[in-house]
Amino acid sequence: MKYALISILLLLNDFGFLYAQNKSDLKNFNILKSYFTPDNKHRLEFLKHNFYDERCTENFPVSLNRDIGICQLRLYDNIENKLILQIIAGDEKKKNFKKCPNHQFPLALAYGFHAITNNSIQFFTELGWFGVDDRNLTYSEFNWQTCETKKLWKYSQLHCPSYCDFTTFLSIENEIYVFYFNRISNTIDGEKTIETDPNFSENQLFELFFNNGSDFPILKKNVSKSVLKIPLQKYDDPESLSIGTYPKYPNINIYINDRLYLFNFKHLILIRMK
């Protein structure tokens, strides 16, 4: 009887050890958000764990706001309720981890989530997550059937000399756009490269469009095609002029003080919002 009791205690102890080691597999979590594909065949879930898991506190980008609390992403076949994809923060450190998607931070699918289609997840990442002082966003599409990630759209506003009032670059597949303050015509101009499949690095984008050595950006001739021009009012105090852009994927917003425009890339049209 004594030996039987000791055996039971040892078994319970071993079970407790395994229980602690596999705590990430416990059903102790909250489903923060759920999304369904348009055909309703797949379900995407973002989970917050209710227990301490070192994988939820390590291996995150240094500047990412983790107050959202997402630690796990799950994708289900909604018809059979079958798990297709599961990503838990820190799992990529495991030797047998299958890196799908092939991305620096797999949970970007959740933290940068934009939309879900019938076979893919659209999401963004920004350099600020990784401690870089730069308003640089990249929108991508992850196809869970092929485990491939495709870059769709890249936005950057700071890659220009210090004398720029503002300059925004946008790369959409093989096309590159620039939006900037044209001091010669006192307008906000938008230009699109006429190059086919341009292959320029980030620090070469300014030189692609503009001449160097001027007091302000001057567009090179015969390198681009105008897509928009917004006249500016005359301001007595130039310091009161606030102009710039911010991403509104798959479009872009352009603001001029209290005026707001949306530029549609599909039809190359400008819409006054307010």
**Can you count the beta strands?**
18
**Rg value:** 25 Å
| Poorly predicted runs of 5 or more residues | 2-26
Order of helices and strands: HEEEEHEEEEEEEHEEEEEEE
Task: Please describe the biggest sheet, giving its number of strands, its sense, and whether it closes into a barrel.
Answer: 8 strands, antiparallel
Mean pLDDT: 81
Total of DSSP H or I helical runs spanning 4+ residues: 3
Helical amount among residues, as a percent range? 10-25%
Distance between the termini: 83 Å
Structural class: mainly beta
Tell me what you see in this structure.
- With 274 residues, the chain is mainly beta.
- Mean pLDDT is 81; it is low at 2-26.
- β3 (72-77) and β4 (82-88) form a beta hairpin.
- It is built from 3 helices and 18 strands.
- The chain has helices spanning 2-21, 108-111, 205-209; strands at residues 29-36, 42-49, 72-77, 82-88, 113-116, 120-126, 136-143, 148-156, 167-172, 175-182, 187-193, 210-211, 218-219, 224-231, 243-248, 251-256, 259-264, 269-272.
- The strands form 4 sheets. An 8-stranded antiparallel sheet has the order 5-6-7-8-9-10-11-14.
- It is 11% helix and 41% strand.
